[in-house]
C-alpha cells in the first residue's frame, strides 16, 4: 500500500484517519505492517 501520508493527501483526510483505518484493516487480518518496510495486503488464509 502507499504510505500513510500519501493516502491522507490523495483522499484529503487527516493522517490520524488513515492510521485508524490501517489499524482496523490490520485487526481484521486484511493487511500486515512490517517495520521499516511498509504495509502490505495480507494473503488469504
TrEMBL record:
GO terms for molecular function: DNA binding; DNA-binding transcription factor activity. It comes from the Bacteria. InterPro entries: Tscrpt_reg_HTH_GntR, WH-like_DNA-bd_sf, WH_DNA-bd_sf. Residues 1-44 form the HTH gntR-type domain. It holds the Pfam family GntR. Keywords: DNA-binding, Transcription, Transcription regulation. PROSITE patterns: HTH_GNTR. The keyword Ligase does not apply. The keyword Glycosyltransferase does not apply. This is DNA-binding GntR family transcriptional regulator. It comes from Prauserella isguenensis. The lineage of its organism: Bacteria, Bacillati, Actinomycetota, Actinomycetes, Pseudonocardiales.
